Amino acid sequence: MSFVSEFNSLPAQSLAQKSLAAGTSAVRESLAKSKLSLADLANLISPAAAELLEHLGRRSHAMTQQRFGKVIRLFVPLYLSNECINNCQYCGFSRDNPILRVTLSLDEVRREADALREQGFRNLLLVAGEHPKFVSLNYLKDCVAALHPDWPGISLEVGPMETAVYAPLVAAGADGLVVYQETYDRKVYADMHTAGPKRNFDWRLETPERAYAAGFRRLGISPLYGLADWRFEAICVAAHADFLLRNCWKAAVTISLPRLRPCAGEFRPLTHMSDRDLAQLVCAFRLMFPDVGLVLSTRESAKLRDGLLPLGVTMMSAGSHTEPGGYTGAGKEKLHQTVRGRIVELASGAPVSPKLRISGEGASEWASAPENATAATGQFEIADGRSPREVADLIRKLGYEPVWKDWDTALTA
Ligand code: SF4
Predict the structure, then answer these.
(1) Of 48, 198, 287, 314, which shows the fewest CB atoms inside 10 Å?
(2) The ligand 1 atom nearest the CA atom of 82
(3) Which whole-number Å values give the CA distances from 272 to 15, 185, 347, 403, in the listed order?
(4) Contact 26, 48 (CB under 8 A)
(5) Could you report the per-residue pLDDT of 61-87, keeping only the tens digit for each?
(6) Residues with CB under 6 A from ligand 1
(7) Greatest CA span in the chain, whole angstroms?
(8) Whose CA is nearest to atom 7 of ligand 1?
């Protein structure tokens, strides 16, 4: 049975409603249990539990240290291409956004990866928009095979595929698959995805299962917070993680915690999730899933990441760029613009793109302004701009060990 069947009978909306009405005694009852249900999770993300956040934080911190030790695993995204055939309203790479696009050649991908290796990384997340012409299976396979000898951990965040199509990528050396459902609310999902194969909600929801069947040993899931009610999303992703832990038990499951960030297209969040809500959710996930990795990216500010780190986070990205070629300038000379999905050659001279400019007293973080740009457009603005070295130093300062490599291919041989 796939998760879609379980999901269709999941009382997520009613649990989210119960969460809002939960009292302190219900929260304390859930906290007293050694194994938490979805109803308990709903209690732990309730407004009543927010009053006990310090207590939740202490429990979550202790449990994380007991299960994971004092280590934070570091990874970095490498964007291969920002071409995409989908229209996702919240994403800078959306097909109809007139942005500067490029797909890196194999040599350019190597250049980017070498620069990241120099910085210390050994755990790479290859990211690309969904575009069968530019981001073909053979292209992805060649990228993975080229990087595999130097990279013990390679995960993919690319358009969902069939199991048989995933298998050659695993054979080439990819070991992780990350797929955000974006939102578990079918109505909001339909509104957000206006064109392209991503409109198929169920196909996306079953992706981690197909990836597992193909042999991926790490599965990463998440909603994108800011589209539907965060409590509803949290209950759904918890149900999803629980399903994967029961049915894909040989794989390590991680849950990410991405909140929407400004991007080309100027989409603004439909719902609000505060910093405090995010902290509460980290604790609640940890108490429900003692052994599941929790991932926090550079979407969040340095200050918030430093504060959330001891609560239960186990994996962080650092020094990230969300544009192809962002680490070395690779691919700059072949940038092109797309207008409603059509390639428009750039006139010589400085190209103009809707690159984000977020500055100025009182300027809205969510407003973008055109400016001269000579690099591909990023997927979204990052908030923590510290270098990997600075992030590693901070992790040490907080008493943790930054881990750059957490797997060796020899272990799977
Ligand atoms: S979210 Fe993914 S599929 Fe949607 S537009 Fe962005 S890159 Fe394409």
Answers:
(1) 48
(2) 7
(3) 19, 15, 41, 33
(4) yes
(5) 999 999 999 999 999 999 999 999 999
(6) 84, 86, 88, 91, 93-94, 129-130, 198
(7) 67
(8) 129
